[in-house]
């Protein structure tokens, strides 16, 4: 490139004498002579000075002609050779203008881009562009520099930079530089490291850009995850070939996946820069390149046949499996998966997220995408199914490769039975806790009722029918007995009531209660009774079993307001059948079952889990205590059995009771009821030691026994009882509460028997005898449940004294 220098239309350096130089010189000599004459007053001196000036100018002109180069050294002329060298080394069009706007210097590239070497700002015929450049020139003269961007000149897009320069800053330097166009390499780099690269990864495409030397310049997350194990791994500058391997069949694999990897298909896209050297070939093999890697699809007939075979195999498996593609669409699911997901026959969801609640759909979709594009791995996601939103289950996912479109394998366990067992265990645990609470409340309440009933009995002894207070006292006692009935129901629910078990057959109990049921059910409800064969005997309290059947029948009647059918069925359940039920609640054994079912309205699912809770009722206020089914539950559990409720809305409800078959030696011998001992005399003699920690119970029991003729000594707990027993007074009968602070009744009796082995003992408690059997397992003791009346206490004391050995 050469530089062209212009001044007054000619090349710089071809100077010629100006025609005005001689007249100016003569005028200068005359002025000088006039000044000398004026100053010295001598015309001769002035003329001589003028002649000397003219002679000096003539000599200087003659010397300049003889030595032009030496004279040019001292002149302040710009050295344009330096500007020429700078212009040759740049890729810019350069021009220099003076204050008059004339072009004094320009590079050849300026002439190529702007033919004819026009002086800026008039480089083009565009008036708007010329105005912009003119404004830039004025700004540069004023501020020192200015800039104009986006100048369009043919196919060029230029930026102009103008600055004030020169020793006296009397020139403007114009630089026109091309705007740098982004290259394909820049575009690809942004694509791989940005949102587009992430979306490529989600589609299962691994993308890598390598240089001509084979080193990695950029890669998307899918390649980083599978090739390096981390999506944030830094592998820039590493050899691409080091991350790949080729097997003996010339198939390409990722080196990190080793033998478990999947063959990859490699697509190469050559890249070229925006500006290439002259003669460079577009897309040269040694230049930068974009590589796209995808899993080798099973697109041939054999692959399709293999996939069909796999789907057939999966459909036969007993556990739920489904396959989804990289986009999360469900490709296949077997019947077990549909059943576990609660789908109807023939239904197929479009996406796995359609199976779960709305809050879990995003998590499922994200997990499917993650397992589809990453390395082969598996994991679980806790989700809530749309059909069962209250019970989170585990959805297992595994990334698969080589199955065509299938990229994720989903597994869902049919946990309906497991969920049912969990509900049963949770229900049993809750009922046990409620039972303990109910038993404790009933025990404390029984102490209060014992005092109320006892005082009523003592008051009635002083009044006769017809007295003004007799009816009031009788009413108080009647209400107290009703309250005692409620506590018995609570104790029955909490499995703490006193039972009198016998060996019996369930059909006999149903037959005994059938006549009563017909009257309770009314004419609109039909009673059907069926009995199975080979029923085993059970050991239970017949009276309590009758109460169970009556309570269930009454609830069934209330569920059929428009009439219906009540069916009572008894049947045998062998141990093999129990094993088939696969329940952890009932141990495998032989049972005799009774099913009470109706054709009523049914029980809603949200209520079914609460029906056995005490005081829970769906009846109107004042029409139910909520203790009927809770009493049934407690009696069955206390008898060693199990009860389950089944119901569908609009299809009635069924209650199934399983009682274990009695395996004792006397199983074939029904217990004969003992003839009651008819004793009406309750008066007695002797000394009774009464040990009771409740003051109100101790007071009423002391008065009741004293009225019956006994001498009564009292104590507050077991320690005081032992002190009284160790005294000089001979004790004929020990009456004690079971549960007391400091020392309870059984511990006191155990120590008392050491010194009084034949001492009769009568225990009394608000808890059931069966509940206390382990603690009161002492020979020759009787039991009186609370609440009791005065007469019941007198009869229990009389019977306990009757067991005393006769004196020798």
TrEMBL record:
SUPFAM superfamilies: ATPase domain of HSP90 chaperone/DNA topoisomerase II/histidine kinase, CheY-like, Homodimeric domain of signal transducing histidine kinase, PYP-like sensor domain (PAS domain). The modification 4-aspartylphosphate is found at residue 737. Signal peptide: none annotated. It catalyses: ATP + protein L-histidine = ADP + protein N-phospho-L-histidine. Pfam families: HATPase_c, HisKA, PAS_8, Response_reg. The keyword Phosphoprotein applies. One of its GO terms (molecular function) is phosphorelay sensor kinase activity. This is histidine kinase. InterPro entries: CheY-like_superfamily, HATPase_C_sf, HATPase_dom, His_kinase_dom, HisK_dim/P_dom, HisK_dim/P_sf, PAS, PAS-like_dom_sf. The chain crosses the membrane at residues 20-39, 45-63. PROSITE patterns: HIS_KIN (PS50109), RESPONSE_REGULATORY (PS50110). Its EC number is 2.7.13.3. Residues 440-663 form the Histidine kinase domain.
């Amino acid at each position: 490139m050469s530089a062209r220098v212009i001044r007054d239309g000619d090349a710089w350096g071809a100077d010629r004498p100006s025609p005005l130089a001689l007249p100016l010189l003569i005028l200068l000599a005359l002025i000088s002579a006039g000044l000398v004459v004026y100053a010295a007053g001598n015309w001769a001196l002035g003329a001589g000075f003028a002649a000397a000036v003219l002679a000096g100018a003539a000599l200087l002109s003659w010397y300049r002609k003889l030595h032009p180069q030496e004279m040019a050294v001292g002149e302040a002329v710009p050295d344009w050779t330096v500007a020429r060298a700078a212009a040759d080394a740049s890729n810019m069009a350069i021009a220099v203008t003076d204050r008059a706007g004339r072009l004094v210097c320009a590079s050849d590239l300026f002439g190529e881009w702007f033919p004819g070497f026009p002086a800026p700002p008039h480089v083009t015929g565009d008036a708007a562009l010329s105005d912009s450049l003119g404004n830039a020139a004025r700004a540069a003269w004023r501020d020192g520099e200015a800039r104009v961007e986006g100048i369009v000149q043919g196919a060029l897009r230029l930026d102009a930079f103008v600055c004030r320069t020169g020793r006296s800053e009397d020139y403007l330097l114009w630089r026109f530089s091309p705007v740098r166009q982004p290259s394909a390499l820049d575009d690809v780099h942004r694509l791989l490291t940005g949102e587009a690269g992430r979306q490529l990864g989600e589609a299962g495409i691994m993308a890598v850009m390598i240089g001509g030397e084979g080193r990695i310049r950029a890669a998307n997350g899918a390649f980083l995850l599978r090739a390096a194990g981390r999506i944030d791994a830094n592998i820039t500058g590493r050899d691409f070939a080091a991350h790949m391997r080729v097997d003996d069949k010339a198939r390409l694999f990722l080196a990190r996946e080793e033998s478990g990897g999947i063959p990859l298909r490699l697509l190469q896209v050559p890249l070229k820069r925006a500006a290439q050297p002259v003669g460079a070939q577009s897309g040269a093999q040694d230049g930068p390149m974009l590589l796209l890697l995808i899993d080798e699809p099973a697109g041939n007939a054999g692959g399709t046949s293999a996939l069909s075979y796999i789907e057939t195999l999966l459909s036969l498996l007993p556990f739920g499996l489904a396959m989804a593609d990289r986009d999360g669409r469900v490709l296949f699911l077997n019947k077990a998966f549909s059943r576990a997901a609660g789908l109807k026959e023939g239904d197929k969801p479009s996406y796995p997220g359609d199976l779960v609640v709305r809050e879990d759909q995003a998590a499922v979709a994200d997990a499917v995408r993650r397992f589809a594009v990453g390395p082969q791995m598996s994991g679980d996601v806790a989700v809530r199914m749309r059909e069962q939103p209250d019970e989170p289950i585990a959805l297992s996912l595994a990334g698969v490769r080589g199955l065509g479109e299938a990229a994720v394998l989903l597994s869902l366990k049919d946990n309906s039975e497991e969920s049912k067992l969990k509900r049963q265990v949770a229900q049993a645990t809750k009922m046990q806790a409620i039972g303990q609470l109910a038993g404790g409340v009933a025990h404390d309440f029984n102490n209060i009722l014992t005092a109320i009933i006892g005082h009523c009995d003592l008051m009635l002894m002083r009044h006769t029918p017809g007295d003004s207070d007799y009816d009031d006292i009788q009413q108080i006692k009647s209400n107290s007995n009703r309250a005692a009935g409620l506590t018995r129901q609570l104790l029955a629910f909490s499995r703490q009531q006193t039972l009198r078990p016998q060996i019996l057959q369930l059909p006999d109990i149903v037959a005994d209660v059938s006549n009563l049921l017909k009257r309770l059910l009314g004419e609109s409800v039909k009673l059907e009774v069926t009995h199975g064969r080979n029923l085993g005997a059970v050991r239970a309290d017949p009276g309590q079993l009758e109460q169970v059947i009556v309570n269930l029948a009454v609830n069934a009647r209330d569920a059929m307001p428009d009439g219906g059918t009540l069916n009572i069925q008894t049947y045998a359940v062998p141990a093999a059948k129990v094993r088939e039920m696969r329940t952890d609640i009932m141990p495998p054994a032989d049972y005799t079952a009774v099913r009470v079912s109706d054709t009523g309205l049914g029980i809603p699912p949200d209520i079914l889990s609460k029906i056995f809770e005490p005081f829970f009722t769906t009846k109107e206020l004042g029409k139910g205590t909520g203790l009927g089914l809770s009493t049934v539950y407690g009696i069955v559990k206390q008898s060693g059995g199990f009860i389950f409720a089944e119901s569908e809305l609009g299809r009635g409800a069924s209650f199934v009771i399983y009682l274990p078959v009695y395996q004792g030696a006397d199983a074939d011998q029904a217990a004969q009821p003992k003839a009651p001992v008819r004793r009406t005399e309750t008066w007695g003699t002797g000394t009774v030691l009464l040990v009771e920690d409740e003051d109100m119970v101790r007071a009423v029991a002391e008065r009741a026994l004293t009225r019956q003729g006994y001498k009564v000594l009292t104590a507050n707990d077991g320690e005081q009882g032992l002190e009284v027993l160790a005294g000089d007074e001979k004790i004929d009968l020990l009456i004690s509460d079971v549960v007391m602070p400091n020392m309870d009744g059984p511990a006191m009796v155990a120590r008392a028997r050491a010194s009084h082995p034949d001492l009769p003992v009568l225990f009394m408690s608000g808890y059931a005898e069966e509940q206390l059997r382990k603690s009161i397992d002492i020979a020759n003791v009787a039991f009186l449940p609370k609440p009791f009346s005065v007469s019941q206490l007198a009869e229990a004391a009389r019977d306990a004294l009757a067991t005393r050995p006769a004196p020798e």
